[in-house]
Each structure stands twice: as structure tokens, then as C-alpha cells.
Amino acid sequence: MYNIFIDGKEGTTGLQIYDRLAARSDINLITLPEDKRKDLTARKQCLNDADLSFLCLPDAAAKEAVSLVDNDKARIIDASTAHRTAAGWVYGFPELSLKRREEIASAKRVANPGCHATGFISLVAPLVKGGIAGADYPFSAHSVTGYSGGGKKTIAEYKDPHRDASLVSPRQYATAMSHKHLPEMVKECGLEYAPAFNPIICDFYCGMCVVVPLTVRLLNKKLTVNDFYNYFAEYYATQNYIKVVRNEQIPAYLPANELAGTNMLKIYINGSGEHIFLASVFDNLGKGASGAAVQNMNIMLGLDETVSLE
User: Fold this and answer.
1) H or E segment and range at residue 230
2) How many Å from the N-terminal Cα to the C-terminal Cα in the chain?
3) 162, 228 in Cβ contact below 8 A?
4) I need a surface site. Which of 33, 55, 271, 276 has the fewest CB within 10 A?
């Protein structure tokens, strides 16, 4: 039996982690009464008593929580942005390599990936690692996401029956070309420059589609669509939660919410001789947040990674 604490259980990610774990017989969920939820002493006790804690907090609060841990055996998965590029933390994307999976398994501190970053890294890291694209390739990406990724305030705005008419339309954001997920995207893909990144929030609850278009003449290796499919299919062949789809199986309209409610991620590949279309489709609350966190927990505890995720 493992003692697990969710610090920040009331947020969207924390609630989903709680729901995924509540019915398990191998886990004892440590909880705090409502009046102790922000009590520093009570939180410190829970963080040190737990075998593993999830931090579902704003960045500053996540850093504070880590400072409270003085038990060398206590392990942490941080769902915030605070430690994704920090020294001493393992980036929790086990599908990137066997080495990364082993690092997660033995880690005491794991940073859960950001949702947009998950889609981008799943497409770009293999390209750079395989020498198909150089570290200096001028990557661009656009990402369509459901509004749940914006947290409680954004969810309330979209569900308000008297909401502004503009919420019906897809809305561009981060128009200054700066986004909190960019540092982890650059680091985990080994890039020399940040991609030109264009996130878009839309009027559906959850789901995400991250698209990375490629110009073949700028690549180090001039591959066909079928070559790309074979490369990605082999790269992710042994993974439970990443599936690569053949170009002839791509629908005419690719929905961002196709995998809502799952921990799956599908990679779609298509294009012409001159340009290649790469898309990563998944649930921003699943593989992009709570599902990935539970998957990392299972790996860290030496359990079947699929438990609570099927």
C-alpha cells in the first residue's frame, strides 16, 4: 500500500488525479480537511508522510511545497511549470527513450510535461534525435486546445450562459510569441532556437491537436511521407500510449477532441513532396496533464504503467 498526497486537489488536474486513484486498492490517499488545505504545517506533514506527492499548484506554491520536504524518501511529481527545466528534476515523458523511462523509475523529483509541450516534443524530439532535422531548424507549431486547460476561471467563463459572443470563435493567444511551455520544448528537443508557437483556445471542453509543418528542403534528410511514417512507427513501436497513424487513415477533418477522456496520443502524418504535415492529437487533461502524472507515478512505484489509465 502506497501513501499518496495530492497538494492542490481542488484544481482541474488535481481533481482528475484524485478520481483516477480513488478506487485503487493499492493506494491510500492522504487528504486534508478543508480548513487545513492551506495550512503550511499540515501540508508539510502530508508531504513528508507520503511515499509520493503530486503538486497541482501555481509555480510559486509548488516551489514552496518542495522546500517543505525533508524526508529523503519522499518522492514528488510536479504538475506545474516550476521545475520542468530545473536541475535535479527528471522531465516526465517516458516515451522519449528507454533511458528516460529508467530515469523516471528511479527519480525522486519528476516534472510533469505541459500539454502543448507534450504534443510538440512528441513530434520534434525524434526528428532532432534521428538527425532528420537540425537543432537550428526553424520550427513552427500551432496548437488547438479545449478551454479546460485554462483552469477554473476560464472554464467558468466558457460555461457562463451569458458569456461574451467572442467565446464561440477560436481565439488566438500568446500573441507576443512567448509562452510558458517554450523553455521545456527547447530543452527536451535539443533546439538552438525556440519555435514560432501559435496556441489557439476553442469552444470545446478538452482535447488538443498540435501541428508541426515541415519544409522538406530545409531538412537534413529528404524523406517521403511513408519514410516519416516508418520512422515514427518504429520510434514509438513499444509504447502503450502513442500510436502512429498512416496517412491514408487521416480523416478529411482532424478533430482535436478525438481522444478526450483517454491517455492516448495519436501522431498523424501526411503531406506532399515539398511539405510534411505532423500532428499530435491527445487529451490536454489526459496525456497532457493528469493521465501523464498517474502514468509517471506508476512507473516511479514500479507498477504496471497502465493502471488507472485504461
Assistant:
1) helix 225-235
2) 21
3) no
4) 33
* Phi, psi angles (nearest 5°) of residue 230: -60, -40
pLDDT digits (tens, 9 = 90+) for 107-157: 999 999 999 999 999 999 999 999 999 999 999 999 999 999 888 899 999
Q: How far apart are CA 281 and CA 80, in angstroms?
A: 21
| Least confident span in 208-212, 246-250, 292-296, 306-310 | 246-250
Within a 10 A sphere around the Cβ of 145, how many other Cβ atoms?
26
Model confidence at 217, in pLDDT bands (50, 70, 90)?
very high
> Is there a catalytic annotation at residue 202?
no
| Amino acid identity, position 27 | I
Pairwise CA distance, residues 143 & 271, whole Å: 18
Helix (H, G, I), strand (E, B) or coil at 300: helix
Under the phi-then-psi rule, with left for phi > 0, alpha for psi from -120 to 50, and beta for the rest, what region is 267?
A: beta
Could you give the CA distance from residue 309 to residue 261 in angstroms, rounded to a whole number? 10
CA distance 277 to 163: 35
Q: Which residue has the cell 501540508?
A: 43
DSSP 291: H
The pLDDT of residue 273: 83
The residue from 46, 56, 115, 189 that is catalytic is: 115
What pTM does this model have? 0.95
d(CA 280, CA 227): 18
- Contact, 167 vs 203, CB < 8 A? yes
Query: What is the torsion angle, in degrees rounded to the nearest 10, for the CA atoms of residue 184, residue 218, residue 253 and residue 306?
Result: -40
Number of residues that this document lists for the chain:
310
Q: What one-letter code names the amino acid at 187?
A: K
Answer yes or no: are the C-beta atoms of 264 and 191 closer than 8 Å.
no
212: β partners: 278
Longest CA span, the chain: 61
